[in-house]
Structures are given as C-alpha cells and as structure tokens.
Amino acid sequence: MILNKSIKTYGLIILAAFLFGACGSSSVVSDVEHDWRTSEIDPLSSVYVMDNAERIYVVNGLSVLAINGNTGEVDNRMNESFWDNIIRNSATEIGSFTFESSRAMSDTYNMNPLHDSGIILLYDHRFDLETITALDPASGGVLWTNDQLNFSMAKYSGLIQEAGARVGRALGNMIGGTHEEESAEERREREVLFMSNLAYEIPGENKMFFKASNKLVMIDLEDGSVIAEFEGFNGPGIAGMQRTDDGGYLVLSAGRDISNLELSSSYSLAHIDADGELLWMSDHSGRHTSNLMLFDNYVVVDGQPTEVFDLNSGDKISENDIRRRSMFSNTLHHVVYHNDNLYVAADMYGQVGRVSESRLIRHHIPTGEVTDFVETTRNTYFTGLQVHNGMLLVSGHGNAIHGRNSSGAIMALDPDTGAEIWISEAFSTAGNNYTGEPSVSAAVIDNGVIYVSDTGTLYKIDASSGETLAKVDHSALETGRMMGLHEVNGNLVVVSRNGVSAFSKNDLSNVYTSKTEGMDSYTINGSFAGLYNGGTRAVSVNLNDGTVGPHIRHGSGGLLSGPPNRYFGNLDGAAVFNNDASKVITIDSDGRIHAHTLR
C-alpha cells in the first residue's frame, strides 16, 4: 500500500559525538576557518549535498542524518526500528544459495537525490518487502512511503537459478550469496551503482519515472501515487530520458553489465505521450548502453551497437557497432547529426596490446552505410566534433589527427566525403600520450573564428581556411597544464591546474591571470569557477576579474587514496560548490565533512 503522511519529523537528535568532534592536527592550514565540520563518518557511507548546499544527507549504516548546511547541526536522524534489526539477524535460502539476512537485506540504506524537486529517495529491501521513502528537503521528515514497487531483490532472487547456469557465482555474489567472498566496498559499490539507475526525475513536473520489476512507473512526487504503469519495460534501470517537441517522453532502460547488477533478458525503449499513454515500446541491444539522443525524427541509443529508431513507429532503422571500451572513460565518443547522418568519433587512446582502433565514421541513417572518415589507427584522443558552415570540425590529438602521437590539431572535413578541407598547424601535446586527458580543448566558435587551446598555447584560427590568426603561449604564465577552455562574459578563459587565465577574443591579450594550488577538477557556475583536487584542496575564482577566494587545504591523502575513507554520493569527488561558488562542502582524508565560506 501507499502510506500518505503529513510531513513527519522523527525525534530530533543532535549528536555531539558526530558534530564538531575531536580531530587530529594537520600540517596544512586553510586560509579561512571552517564554518563547521563533523567528526569522522563511517567508511562506505553515502553523502549527498542538496538544495544549493543548504542541506546534506548522510547515509551512515542504517541511520540517515539530515544536516543543516549552514550550521552543521543534525536537524533530523532516522534510525532503523528494533524489530527490523531483529529480522536482519536471521537467515534464509534463495534458490540453491544460503544468505544471512545482513547480506540478503540492506546493511546500509541506499539513496537517490532528486535535485530538481529537492527530494531524497531512501531505499530499503528485506526479503520480499522493498520500500521507497521520500524525505522532505527542508525538515528531513517523511513525505510518503511506497512498499508496492519491487526494485531489486524480488526481481533478481527470482533470476538466480537461471543465472546460475550462465554467470553462476557472479550473480549470487552480487545479491549477497555467502558461497563466494566479496569485500564490503565492492558489494557497496555494486549496490550504489544499481540503485542510482532506478529513478529518473522529470524536471519541472514534480514527477519521476521509476524502474520497478518488469515495468516502468510514472510517480507523482508530491504524494507517491502511481500516475501510470507500463508493463514489459525490461532492463535493470533507466539509462536516460528525452522530451519530445510535443511534450512526450522517450525513456531508455539501462543496459547489460553483470558486474554492476545489470542483468536482464531484454531491454526497452518506450515512447510515452504527454498524457501518459504508451505510443510504442521497442527492444534495444542493452550492450554498454549510454546516452539517449533525439535528432529530427530519429531516436538514437548510444551503445554497442549504436541503434537508430523511428520516432513515430518505434521501428529500428539502422545501427553501427564502433563503440569500444577504454581504460580511461565510459564516455568513449562524440556524436553529432547532420542531414540524415550520424558522425561518430570513437577513442582508443593510450591502450596497449591487441586493441581496437580509433575511428571517425559517418553513419548514413536511412541505409545504415558506415564510412570511415580518417585512417583507422590506435593512439588517438578526440576532444571535439561539430558541424559548422557545412564543415565537420574535429579536434584532438594522436595519429588520426595529425599523424604523430605527440601532436594535436583541429581539422575540417567534407561531411559527405570525408575529404580534408584544411588542417590547422600542429599543436603541442607532448608528454600526454598515454593519459586520455584533454590535451586539446573543445573548440569555441564565434563569428567565423575558432578558438582552441592545447596544453600550453591558445590559438585563434580562421574557420574558413584553418589559418592561425593569432596565438599566445599561456604556459609562460606558469598556470600548469590546461584543463579546459570556455567563453565567459566575452573573454576566453583557460582553466589550468595551477591557475585561471582570461584573454581578449580580439587579439588574445591577457586580461588577468590568477594562481591556484595544484587542482585537477573544476566546475563553472555562472561567473565563478570552483576548482578542487580530491579531498586535499578547493578554491573559487571570479571569472570576471580573476579574484581568487581563500584556499581550503586538507593535507595529503583525500578520496583518491582509497579505503578506509571511501564514500558515495555527489561528494565522491570530495568537493561540492553551491551555485555561485561562494560556499564549498568537502570531505577530508580523515573522513570529516567540512563547510567553508569562500567569500
């Protein structure tokens, strides 16, 4: 049944042992004092920063803490009931496997944050009872509970006998079988990956799609009621959703990956109209399923193969099979559409041994014909693919780009024949041959001019001829290796590991250069950039004038050092900034959550 509740806040418990706990001394000091910090949280917890860093949820074993992002106080704590705890200490058998309840049931809660509505979904499973609880973002109280949507255990325990002959121990182990050992971290990672695909929020509508067992369900987020159900929607989760021009929905099921609890006999793509009526449902391959894209009346499922369906009928039109795995990323290629053609650049950079080759192809959708547009080769990294003024612009580095492993370029190709129209001068990408990092940025195009950066130089290139109009050596500014190029308020901003530099689009003159301390990741929020390096450092930079905020320093280690400080959720990168990068929430290498005001 669905239990509709008024917002109910469980007993308010402020835990002095959790908050502002005693901490060991550190050899590094931040430029400003923290606003607050917690004591260490348990490894393998999930931490979600919500509501523009105003609210933080921590799944700490079988407790859920709602933390005020401004004060660090625990506004609410939900604990498992005594009776549930007794049940979890029993045992059972599923098929031919024996399970301890602590393994066959949740030994920690799982969560999905719905950022558009601000709701947190809390998942719990125990034998044949699986419960979804929606938490209110402001109070941490319960909005509604639904125990009628089987989402994991009921489904996969039923498949265990069939799977035993095919994948045997792998599946039994994934759902808690005691016949084969698996580390707590590995099992937790599998659970988190699986649960993260169950819910897909519909932005602006206060609704979500939810992948229940063998069906897709549309749910009202206000009260948890079921709006519509679509039987036979197969697959372990939801890989993506697209809105159609008439207000309808395209929903794609997740694909097959045994290691991530993704096992199914078939996989679905559904077209649902704005009134919630099913127009059609088709099968897709389910192999390495990634993005869902809509071009004109073509629905593209990006996987291996990449499949194209007719929007009106759901019929498969054609497919290509060039997608390959990489040691660096599961986002392996760039896809653009132009005049009934898909153009796909698939990377294989940095691989060794007997591996597939990098390819840039044209896939003619009506016929399915696939044409190679560059010489197939290993050791190529594509960083950009777009159509401009009737030309296919390709940026990157490696053999397929400029014929040499250590150089990059941007080149213009005829989109019909693949013939080279022009190629830029060789860019410098030396020293980055086997990392998969973007040694050549994606291009910024404005008024017939292309701006692109390599590891140390910013180029201004004529889009019609490929001629270099101007260039500037930004490596001389000592900001380190380039991480990205962006246009911000009329300037070109190069974000690098040790600083941020802005240049005039007119003559590439330097507007400002701001120094930072060894960052490896960043986000851009409007006119501000938030830069961070694992759990060690974070800083904000005003991209209008280059003003650098205070550096937050947590010392060595950090998230990337691995166990015992391994966390899940949107703090798995160890830093989340609010919308204008005026505040940052971090986790240090000792497992403490910090909040700092940056300006």
Give an overview in words.
The chain is mainly beta. A 5-stranded antiparallel β-sheet has the order 1-12-11-10-9, with helices on one face. Strand 25 and strand 26 (341-346) form a beta hairpin. Mean pLDDT is 78; it is low at 1-26, 85-105, 153-181, 257-262, 325-332, 349-354, 431-436 and 557-565.
Total helical elements:
7
Structural category: mainly beta
Largest sheet: 5 strands, antiparallel
**Over the alpha carbons, how many angstroms does the gyration radius reach?**
25 Å
General shape = flat
* Terminal-residue CA separation: 49 Å
Low-confidence runs (pLDDT<50, min 5 residues)? 1-26, 85-105, 153-181, 257-262, 325-332, 349-354, 431-436, 557-565
Give the fraction of residues assigned to helices.
under 10%
Give me the side-by-side strand order of the main sheet: 1-12-11-10-9
What is the strand and helix layout of this fold?
Blueprint: E1 2-8, E2 36-37, E3 46-50, E4 55-60, E5 63-68, E6 74-79, H1 82-87, E7 91-94, E8 97-100, H2 101-104, E9 110-114, E10 119-126, E11 129-135, E12 142-146, H3 153-158, H4 160-166, H5 169-174, H6 184-195, E13 199-202, E14 207-212, E15 215-220, E16 226-231, E17 238-243, E18 249-253, E19 267-272, E20 278-284, E21 292-295, E22 298-301, E23 306-310, E24 316-320, E25 333-338, E26 341-346, E27 359-364, E28 370-372, E29 380-388, E30 391-398, H7 399-402, E31 404-413, E32 420-423, E33 427-428, E34 444-446, E35 449-453, E36 457-462, E37 468-473, E38 482-488, E39 491-496, E40 499-504, E41 510-515, E42 521-525, E43 528-533, E44 537-542, E45 552-553, E46 575-577, E47 583-587, E48 593-597
